[in-house]
Specification:
2 copies of one chain form a homodimer.
Chain A: H1 2-23, H2 35-51, E1 55-59, E2 66-71, E3 79-85, E4 105-107, E5 110-112, H3 120-137, E6 143-149, H4 159-164, H5 167-170, E7 174-177, E8 189-194, E9 196-205, E10 211-212, H6 213-216, H7 223-232, H8 255-263, H9 268-275, H10 288-293, E11 297-306, E12 315-316, E13 319-328, H11 334-348, E14 354-363, E15 366-367, H12 373-386, E16 391-395, H13 401-409, E17 413-417, E18 431-433, H14 434-452
Parallel strand pairs in A: 3-6, 3-7, 7-17, 8-16
Antiparallel strand pairs in A: 1-2, 2-6, 4-5, 5-18, 8-15, 8-17, 9-13, 9-14, 10-12, 11-13
């Protein structure tokens, strides 16, 4: 491994430059005006695999393409499937970025750009680690398959179909994903639980067009008031979600799990300072760690109605809408939640208002077993790369594909995150710590060897 | 009067063209990018008065200028003060206009443009009626003063100071304002009551920037949820406003008043069809007519938070804000309402949220006495102009200056509206019925003679 490690050290600066090239492509999958940019990012990734001599294909979908590549030159060794995504979240609000989102900028040892950690930077570590093996040992010590998609930030709409219709091609012993975080700076982690998600948009329509609030106010249901009342009714003062049946399938946290959460080196004062709030809040009876990773939640993601310009406009708006989402814990079924929500919203909708509920995407939560030889192998690789054994944690975000891999391919996923909690993923000024980028590549390079040693 | 009437008939088409010139100026007072346009509209109006030989002045204010003009050539005759405004509401949402808001377009006997009725078109009728007298009789039969401002749509911020410091100049026997509506098409009205207004913007801030709703959701107060809950708490299911003391100064409607409301020729089915709702709603225990003109109300005018673009973004927004307003009835004090609201919002604000309440503008409601000789004179003029005696009604909108005139100058106001309820004021596709434009000019021309005959 010393050749590999030396190669990584020597070529590190070039790896950063290559990552910057990818980060300059505004591959915003949610925004149809960026359709060509998303494809360009996919082609860039495919070019990397071709450069390593991998069998590479850009697989078309009705949406953005999937990049698939494989190197199967080690008969008898296990096969690892690496999943990642080359699309990014929208950069809004643009005016809050210190430097433009698609002009990667180094500051204080970090690289700032949309997608720096989520997921271009993290995904790229598993490509550069492969390069190091090929350029030094001539080949990888293990069989690898890469599945890099362009629709993760819009709900991976066409991924499940692709996996279901390519089961043989994707057959593998274990999946590796780097799209999560370390527990804290210098505290690497293996994430063994993820929340699911059910994301909706509620559109209310009242009068057929905006009205003068003086002449009509008081006699017509105001859609923005109806929206406020309906949303307010979805969660009570104790932070409990008010959709009938919502908690039916929520597993109670065991004493053992709660002890583990309490044992994590979490600094609540630092957490509050990091995000700039003077109080943490949430569901009564649970700690911040439990609330943000192991309990289901309700969040409003966007509100739109009426006049939003400068000054005052005395309008009674024709429409009001909200984007909102529930984070789900394992065993909660997004489809069941959607049906219960729809029934509840219909009940809450006042006279004079027409309701439309759009489902943007849904995915169940997942918990992966910790007692596997692959987890032990990953822990050893992390110790090599980060100089410290990982902690084991659950993460509040969602990576829907993890449960798809379990269901369709029968394999578990290693969630090995190089990011940090304050990386501003999905927010302005997203960043990736450059030292962690290089530690991630080193860990990945060791991971290929450690996984190869597992008896399959 | 036959000379005057003949002149009006002959020059009617030119009056329409002149009005179109004024409507082409996008004098949106709320939008600072239109500052120069607002001034241009004021100068255009001043040019009209200069053309009639009136003593004319463009009076500067810290905001948009006030146009003042007078013609005092009839010693012994009463003096009438005409108030109007040359600024307009913002045209948003632009994509709902059938033809552009600042390209006046004739369709089905109507003239479509922002400001067509509110208030450029209506205000202009009192200029053209003066022209007809001057061009035929050589002079007006009465003394006139015109006060035409450019900040009505943003709360007339500098008007009260102007009136208070120009009391002698503005001294008059009666005020005339045409900025209201007929009761219905072909049913002209004298409006004797107006609602007041208190308009606010509530800005909530949670975390210092947008967060990933997966990683942080559940552990931090979501400002958009806080906003929904606070707004929802301001009005109950019976349409009663939940601000302590809000109804303290609300006068109970008398049986006589309720009988008058019930006697108005109001078509509720037609009203629902006009605005496109399948149900009318509002404060329990009151009729639609009472709700929209004689009862106080709460309306949300705008909502803003988080991601409002296409598709889904899993963001926990840093901020959420709402523009909202109360319509007030006479005797309710906007300042008292503001203080009570502020206290209530502070009480409702959850931990983890910082609150800012901006007061955009406030004005009390007003009721003017019906038993005056000026009202009788106006009724006769309307019969000449519209061929039918007016009904007497209260209007739900606010014209704050009416109570200022009462307080500062000690005079009452004649509210003579030529508009219609479906003119889409403050909404896309604002219009003015061209026949009513001409009827308004004719009524105004007769009004000068009728008012001149009142013994002061």
């Amino acid at each position: 491994m010393s050749d590999v490690d030396q190669y990584l050290q020597q070529h590190g600066p070039r790896f950063e430059e290559e990552l910057c090239d990818l980060l300059r492509i505004p591959s915003v999958s949610a925004d149809s005006t960026h359709k060509a940019d998303v494809r360009r990012a996919g082609e860039w990734v495919a070019g990397q695999f071709r450069g390593l001599g991998f069998k590479t294909e850009i697989c078309e979908t009705p949406g953005h393409p999937i990049v698939y590549a494989e190197s199967l030159g080690v008969p008898g060794a296990p096969t690892v499937l690496v999943y990642g995504h080359y699309d990014v979240q929208p950069p809004d609000p643009l005016n809050e970025w210190k430097t433009p989102p698609f002009e990667p900028t180094r500051r204080d040892g970090n690289l700032y750009a949309r997608g720096a950690t989520d997921d271009k930077g993290q995904m790229f570590t598993h490509i550069k680690s492969a390069e190091a093996w090929i350029k030094t040992a001539g080949k990888l010590p293990i069989n690898v398959k890469y599945l890099i998609e362009g629709e993760e930030e819009v709900g991976s709409e066409h991924l499940e179909h692709f996996i279901a219709t390519n089961k043989d091609r994707l057959k593998s012993d274990v999946v590796v994903i780097s799209d999560t975080s370390q527990f804290a700076a210098g505290v690497p982690a293996i994430t063994y639980g993820l929340r699911g998600i059910a994301y909706f948009e509620l559109k209310l329509t009242g009068p057929k067009q905006d009205l003068h609030s003086g002449s009509f106010g008081g006699a017509v249901t105001n859609p923005a008031i109806a929206l406020s009342k309906m949303l307010a009714a979805l969660i009570d003062a104790d932070g409990r979600i008010q959709v009938p049946g919502f908690y039916d399938d929520v597993t109670t946290l065991t004493d053992e799990e709660r002890k583990q959460f309490a044992a994590l080196p979490f600094d609540e004062a630092g957490f509050k300072k990091q995000i700039g709030v003077d109080a943490v809040t949430g569901e009564q009876g649970f700690t911040t760690q439990e609330r943000k990773s192991a309990r289901p939640t309700f969040d409003i993601n966007g509100l739109t109605s009426g006049y939003q310009g400068e000054g005052a406009k005395t309008v009674l708006p024709a429409r009001a809408s909200a984007k909102f989402s529930f984070r789900l814990v394992p065993k909660q079924d997004p489809k069941k939640i959607q049906a219960a929500l729809e029934a509840q919203l219909k009940k809450l909708c006042p006279p004079g208002i027409r309701l439309e509920l759009v489902s943007h995407h849904g995915a169940p939560g997942v918990v992966v077993p910790l007692d596997s030889p692959y987890v032990a192998a990953a822990a050893r690789a992390i110790e090599h790369g980060f100089g410290r054994a990982p902690v084991y944690m659950r993460e509040g975000g969602s990576i829907p594909v993890v449960s798809t891999f379990r269901q369709q391919l029968g394999v578990d996923t290693l969630l090995l995150g190089w990011g940090l909690d304050d990386d501003n993923t999905h927010s302005p000024n997203e960043k990736f710590c450059l030292a962690d980028f290089h530690r991630g590549i080193r860990t990945s390079a060791h991971l290929w060897k450690e996984l190869a040693a597992v008896k399959s």
